[in-house]
Amino acid sequence: MKSVPVKVEHEGKWVPTTMGIAEDRFRIDAPLNQEIPYRSVVDLEEKKNQVIVTAGAGGEAVYRIASVEKVLQVLKKFIITQASAYRLNAFFMSPAIRGGVLVQNAQWEKGAIAVMKTGIWFVSQEKQVCIPLDEVTGIELTSREIQEKNLDVVKIDHLIENELVTSFVLCPLTTLQVLYNFLKEATHDTEVREEIDPLAGQVAMLVYSGMDSSAIENMLKLSHKDLDAIYEKLLGLGLAEVLYVRKEVQLTPKGVRYISESVKSPMN
Amino acid sequence: MGRILIVDDTMFMRTLLKNILFSGGHDIVGEAADGAEALAKYQELKPDLVTMDVVMPKMNGIEALKAIKAADPAAKVIMCTAVGQEQMVKLAVKSGARGYIVKPFQAPKVLEEVKNVLSA
User: Fold this and answer.
1) A33: left (phi over 0), alpha (psi -120 to 50) or beta
2) What's residue A260's pLDDT?
3) How far apart (Å, rounded) are the C-alpha atoms in residues A235 and A179?
4) Which residues in chain A are contacts of B84 at CB distance < 8 A?
5) CB B102 to CB A98 under 8 A?
6) How far apart are CA A25 and CA A57, in angstroms?
7) What are the pLDDT digits (tens) for A8-58?
8) In which domain, by residue range, is B27 found?
9) Distance from C-alpha of A180 to C-alpha of A142, rounded to nearest angstrom
10) Using CB atoms, which residue from A96, A100, A142 is nearest to B104?
11) Which of A108, A138, A165, A188 is deepest in the core (most CB within 10 A)?
């Protein structure tokens, strides 16, 4: 088993150690001293430069491992292909659309999909892509023209760093239906059931497009108070979250005195 | 930076695109609410680039694209449509579209696509 340097989280601190990666298991050396068979893994999450591996039927052991991308890639590939998860062979295209713009070099990749507790993993010879379930914003069973044939695909809209990304999965229809039903069920909580009035819908669209509050007020001819009320509605429905609270201020007599003095400089 | 004609049948989307493109330093030389108006405005204003909605009354975006390309084969047109209508891409590309954006879109990505098409 080849050993590579990694850092693992141990008692709330990141500790340097070594990790061995074999065909059917990986080993984390002291202070953890653990050997984890890939088939015991029930979940795999990805954060920047780290992976979180959950093992054991009840998810009793959680390992946070940080290392260079190359090492994590090897580990992820073994886990995705052997972990205890619903797996299927499929073609996928991810990302196909990013922020509303078609990805120019997007292509279908042959590989596998593993559905884990908190996310779906696509793995091919070249790529490992994770879609966390709580980042999924839409699922649709649709068709797409592939090599001049209309084929059924699952279209998954999801967020990556607050950017809407669309990915496609292509596999036999029966499997596709299973995947679609699973995703529908797993993302049930984020379905929008409430009615949103057209104005609030337009505000939501502008927020998504990157417009700030003053641009939105100008575009929709809204007062600050009206926009605030719409924001409250969006917040209440769980469609938006507060990024920061802007303060509206007016000058005190001291402030007015300061700006009055500042314009009396010799230059003026 | 380019001189851009925005074509969309909803004033809301035109205003949104106008704001995004203006923030990127582009000049909005005109707006049109359908394909026929787009063709007339294109011939009058000769913009560097057109953003063209696909689904519009009178003359749709694909027909307008074909008419503009027939009048000016060098015309640069970015098609703009709603999510779920990506099947239109092939038809639009076949008809001469240089780029494609899908609603809802984000400002930085739109500006990047516009920049790519203008510099191509």
Assistant:
1) left
2) 82
3) 31
4) 140, 142
5) no
6) 16
7) 999 999 999 999 999 999 999 999 999 999 999 999 999 888 999 999 877
8) 3-119
9) 10
10) A100
11) A165
